[in-house]
Amino acid sequence: MSRSRPGGRLGGYAEEVAAAMRRRRDVRRPRVRVRIDHGEARVLADGSPAADRLLALARQMLDEQDAQVEEPPHG
Fold this sequence. Notes:
0% of the residues are buried. This protein is extended. A hairpin with a 3-residue loop joins β1 (33-36) and β2. It is mainly alpha-helical. Helix content is 53%, strand content 11%. It contains two helices and two strands.
């Protein structure tokens, strides 16, 4: 005979919501995730030169995009 956890399905949903709230509350550093050989995903180590460089490039691209959106149209 299998035993279900207390609260059943509703308890499971509550646990999922609580976990989501904890994740939102936690301050997390951006991760640098790249795809390599045959689409395999890899997360670069925090503080590694490659991760820092790619993160800086991504921020620069976003800043440039924000600047283009804020500029009034010419004409």
